[in-house]
Amino acid sequence: MRRVSPPAPPSLVERLDAVLPQTQCRRCGYAGCRPYAEAIAEGAAINRCPPGAELVVAKLAAIAGRPAIALDRSCGDPGPLTVARIDEAVCIGCTLCIDACPVDAIVGAAKRMHTVLAAVCTGCGLCVSPCPVDCIAMVAAGRAWSVEDPRAARERYGARNRRLAAPASADVVTKPLDSERAKRKAAVAAALARARARRGAAGVRAK
Fold this sequence. Notes:
207 residues; mainly alpha; Alpha-Beta Plaits; 2 domains; two-stranded antiparallel sheet; 6 helices; 40% helix
């Protein structure tokens, strides 16, 4: 009878990553929770996760075998969970927020209104800065980050990364990346011009 080897114990990086909140907010200065876990395993500070706050710092300290220290407030302050909300009347459909979301919590199409799936938004805030019309705000989620949320966020983050890394299908005609960027930039500029024109017209009517 063939013996089945027991599964290998989780590595230090896996154990560190398991206690991080998986918001993928990058406030720690790294490109996501897993890269931060890898950095901690190599000696980086354990106190750079505002969403996890003091509780996560204590867990990281225990796993890494280091003393617990105060949260580094230069990375941001902890607080209640927030989620992104798009002002759909102002949205120009540029898709830049969709590109920025690490967990595919924003749905929409080019030149069409976008919306946020609040149930899966991690509150990372990465969608706010790219928006050219400032139509995204972070608002109180009205709930806490649950035990289940990190698992779901990790799965969505991994699925998105795998999709982006997958080679294009052979039957899809691809265009040069620079050309796509130029077209998107032109589309955003045109949408901004339309938005300014609408606002200007509204201002004239108000007078």
